[in-house]
Amino acid sequence: MSVDKDTVERIAKLARIRLKEEQKEPLAKELSNILGWVEQLSQLDTEGVPPMTSVVEMRIPLRKDEVSDGGYPDKVTANAPEASHGFYVVPKVVE
Amino acid sequence: MALLKGRSGEWEMVIGLEVHAQVISESKLFSGASTTFGAKPNSQVSLVDAAMPGMLPVLNEQCVRQAIRTGLGLKAKINRTSVFERKNYFYADLPQGYQISQFLHPIVGEGEILLDLPDGETRTVGIERLHLEQDAGKSLHDQHPSKTFVDLNRSGVALMEIVSKPDMRSAEEAGAYLRKLRAILRYLGTCDGNMEEGSMRADVNVSVRRPGEELGTRTETKNVNSIRFVQLAIEHEAARQIEVLEDGGEIAQETRLFDIKTGATRSMRSKEFAHDYRYFPDPDLLPLELDEAWIEEIGATLPELPDEKKARLMQDMGLSAYDAGVLVAEQESADFFEAVAKGRDPKLAANWVTGEFFGYLNKSDVTLSDAPVNAERLGGLIDLIADGTISNRIAKEVFEAMWESGKDAGTIVEEKGLKQISDSGEIEALIDDIIAKSPEQVEQYKAGDNPKVVGWFVGQVMKATQGKANPGVVNQLLKQKLGG
Amino acid sequence: MAALTHLGLAEARDLLDKGEVSSKELTEAHVAAVEAARELNAFITETPEKAVAMAEASDARRSKDEAGPLDGLPLAIKDLYCTEGVLTTAGSHILEGFKPTYESTVTSQLWRDGAVMLGKVNLDEFAMGSSNMTSHYGGVENPWKRAGDNRKLVPGGSSGGSASAVAARIALGATGTDTGGSIRQPASFTGITGLKPTYGRCSRWGIVAFASSLDQAGPMARSVRDCAILLRSMAGHDPKDSTSVDRPVPNYEQALTGDVRGLKIGVPKEYRVDGMSDEIEKLWQQGCDWLTAAGAEVVEVTLPHTHYALPTYYIIAPAEASSNLARYDGVRYGLRIEGEGSLDSMYETTRGEGFGDEVIRRVLIGTYVLSAGYYDAYYNKARQVRSLIAKDFAEAFAEVDAILTPTAPSAAFAMGENMDDPLAMYLNDVFTVPASLAGLPGVSIPAGLSSEGLPLGLQLLGRAFDEETVIRVAGVLEEAAAFDHLPAYVTEG
Ligand SMILES: [Mg+2]
Ligand SMILES: [Zn+2]
């Protein structure tokens, strides 16, 4: 799979990463190389092979329904770049 | 089937609903933080809910149980294996940068809901699926001119997304669907159905087509939070689509927003950028495998649901489909009715509950549980009617006094001296007196040219007793005296 | 002073037990060594005051006979573990200033057992790398040098700071994490021992996630015994991690019986990759001979899908990472760059400047392979191949008790080498990645020197949750190899 600059821009937008113009072409090339290399998997016939869900052979653990956490708003916002009145603050979102 | 008339002929609307119902649980789907409504900002947030680095989800057993319970209540297939997946997108109130949801393998598969339509007809709407997922936090846009404030208290609260098949054909049906779904959830105790607080909200999918033709392109109007608004959104959206199509345009498959102020839907600008959610199984969680025994255990604890209750009220208690439907629409009213009807004539009980009682309830601002007349007192009133202590007519007067004073029926009858007079001696003496004073009316009666004159005599007796005379006894004695 | 830092962790423990040294003395010697070794850039955050306070508390506990299994032993913590009140960076600019209000499960267990924290050690950014060169805080120097060559070498990665600190004798042991080889490869590059436990053995709670289905914490130290001691404290069931397995934690040290008679050791033929260097092939053979001499039976096994392990890994790990790293968005912690005023521009500029090149590369690959239309061809295909790889191991382990392979295809390389081509860098993990995909335990022990005088490691892999056999065999191999070479930094200062 060859990745072009437009594709890099599209994926970077999806991933919310602002790329500098000079990063785009090299990334397109690197991504093409890496994707081309991983595509060797297509040589392998995996018809009927179940996809791995987890390497641990156990049931998902279930937690009892109890209030056992929370109640520390100061801790929650302690590392926030911007907080006010207990809220996180971000640039205005337009809907 | 309700067809819409356009300029160029008839159109049919096709409606499907995706309902997000907040699961009743103490703590969140994947964390131990509380789910109660209305707490201080970020006070019900765990490190997991705030997506701190290295935090991991642990599944709440009760939320799984509630989803199974709901699935069983919707007569749906419970999937033995379901998978939690990550739905990846960026938003201020989505701290992980993904919502843990179920995509390819939901916990509940196909089921159905029976709609009770106003004409007494029923109609089946298919359920496509039900899955568990996390709620997002709340963004407040009106606190600051250039900033948005984010509160994560709701972040991670368990939701059931219940997706219908596109089986509805009118706004009324959509309303009936939501009411019925809400009733079932409330009966099950899996969601409080409180749309004002946001614990139930609907995404409305609407398309239109010429009758008999293939499905048209649909739009999705997000997060509509009342049944009335859902119906308005459907009507507006269908009309808008018909106009676009009749003008030769095309419907864009898009997400829209319902504007409460205008009653119209509008395109959501911020969602224009095509989403690509990149779902994949959450590697922090294993597939959810359910034991048959657990599902059976949950099934054994299901309450009687509205449809079954309605059938029982009709079959065993002889109620009409209409009365039974009205009574079972809410768990609370059904419970109230059953308490009133216990050991009494069910039809009389149904008349009083759906008549006077609901009438007063609607006129006043109180809820059923706060009503000044409780089931026991209403039952007491009915007992007084049944044993002849008061007439039906007096009973209405007594009920009004009960509603106003909060006293029981017996006390009011006693205090106001409303006890019915059934003593034939007393009534006989009154009738004799009236007959003696009213030769003209007696003549009319004997001549048989005024059939209403019997009523006049009854009225006179009632007037003399302030309505307390037993009407049966009065009629019988009048016939004897006049005819004899 | 020097003598105290040259002790092994087990020896130091025994001296503490006998009262011949105090934790304060031991810790102060290491604190001084950490300061003296700043040129290695092994530490991102030194916590000397905390270390001394913890040491004093340890000595107090010991005086009351309340010492735990690790009491008083100074350790270095990979800066991927969240430590309460102590800067935690994951080697990334995007976690600028982040001081967790919580302690990871694994480190809290270390402190529960009495260990002392020297500080937080450097790593590849978000553990993505095999050289430690992707760290925002700069590369870490390997204490080893090629004979007659003064160029700085990389310690491997991603646990490069951990490896360098242990090899340079500035920490008795360190925590690492291993996603595709991040404990084993740097252990091999620096002549130390590193153990990646079975997936699910150590809690991932509080460790910054890279690839959730692969990440596993593990110990790095200067002997198999030291790793066994550390693992006992690090391992254990954690209800806060849904992939943590509830099994008893054995006393791993007791697995060091020195007896491998009757054990069957597998040698996978597919690991004889094209272009494998003679000296690595010779070392591998030497390992087989040592085990045969000790009474084990060495047999060839087949792991037919080995060739597909790396591409599989380079789909799965970036895919998971692209999602795991979505939370670094400038809202709740770490770096924020406002951008042009909108929320999206804040996201984009914060992440564009906060992430380094390798992280961006992997997030973009991960985003791409999960995106609409590509999921089945890449991600789902990789999950299928992962099943096949796990099945290969299951079948091999039906025949053998452990598997012996080289740890890495080469010795440590110089800073700047292998740097232009991401793919060439990825090949470093060719021998470690398959067991990671299968979730199996593995250890790397130093087994010999390359012709350039650099350490080379051998890797032993075991059945799931059979760390004990891995440790037992590794102990025998370690004794046979008798690797007692010291890095240039230690011999020359
Ligand atoms: Mg939806
Ligand atoms: Zn949803």
Shape of chain C: globular
What portion of the residues of chain A fall into strands of 2 or more residues? 5-15%
- Class from secondary-structure proportions of chain C: alpha/beta
Classify the beta-strand content of chain C into a percent band.
Answer: 5-15%
What summary fits the major beta sheet of chain A?
A: 2 strands, antiparallel
Shape of chain A: flat
Physical arrangement of strands within the biggest beta sheet of chain C:
1-3-2-4-6-5-10-11-9-7-8
The helix content of chain A, as a percent range, equals 25-40%
Strands side by side in the biggest sheet of chain A? 2-3
Write the H/E string of chain A, N to C. Answer: HHEHEE
Any low-confidence stretches of chain A, pLDDT <50, length ≥5? Answer: none
Average pLDDT of chain C, to the nearest integer? 97
Task: Summarize the structure in words.
The complex is a heterotrimer of chains A (95), B (484) and C (493). Chain A has 95 residues and is of the alpha+beta class. In chain A, 35% of the residues lie in helices and 9% in strands. In chain A, strand 2 (83-84) and strand 3 form a beta hairpin. With 484 residues, chain B is α+β, with helices and mostly antiparallel strands. In chain B, a hairpin with a 4-residue loop joins strand 14 (255-259) and strand 15. In chain B, helix 6 (321-328) packs across helix 8 (346-363), helix 7 (331-341) packs parallel to helix 9 (375-386) and helix 12 packs across helix 14 (453-465). Chain B is elongated, with a radius of gyration of 30 Å. Chain B starts with a strand and ends with a helix. Chain C is an alpha/beta fold. The chains are: A alpha+beta (95), B alpha+beta (484), C alpha/beta (493). Chains A and C meet through helix 1, helix 2, helix 3 and strand 3 of A and helix 10, helix 11, helix 12 and helix 13 of C. Strand 1 (62-63) of chain A pairs parallel with strand 3 (59-60) of chain B, so a sheet runs across the interface. Bound molecules: magnesium ion and zinc ion. The site of magnesium ion has 3 residues of chain B, from loops. Magnesium ion (MG) binds at residues 18, 161, 203 of chain B.
